[in-house]
Specification:
- The chain has about 70 residues and is an all-alpha fold.
- It contains four helices and no strands.
- The chain has helices at about 5, 10-25, 30-50, 55-70.
- The chain is globular.
């Protein structure tokens, strides 16, 4: 799933963009590094989710954890 189909609408895209900016600011890394990690995690979560209200919270948590543990996605 690419970013063009990842978000259901513009409002949702903005919500996730704010989450990406927040993670980037918190971990002091460039948005360009965080965005693909976040969107990869979001796509994976979206495939499994029944309730989608907290996907941004979970995606942020998993990206921060992965960065802390030194994991990287391709």
């Amino acid at each position: 799933m690419d970013a063009g189909t990842l978000y259901e609408n513009e409002e949702e895209r903005r919500q996730h963009w704010r989450a990406i900016e927040s993670v980037a600011r918190d971990v002091q890394r460039p948005i360009e590094e965080i965005q693909p990690l976040y969107e990869s995690e979001l796509a994976e979560l979206r495939r499994e989710a029944r309730v989608k209200d907290f996907l941004s919270v979970l995606a942020c948590r998993y990206v921060r954890l992965a960065l802390k543990q030194g994991q990287h996605w391709h």
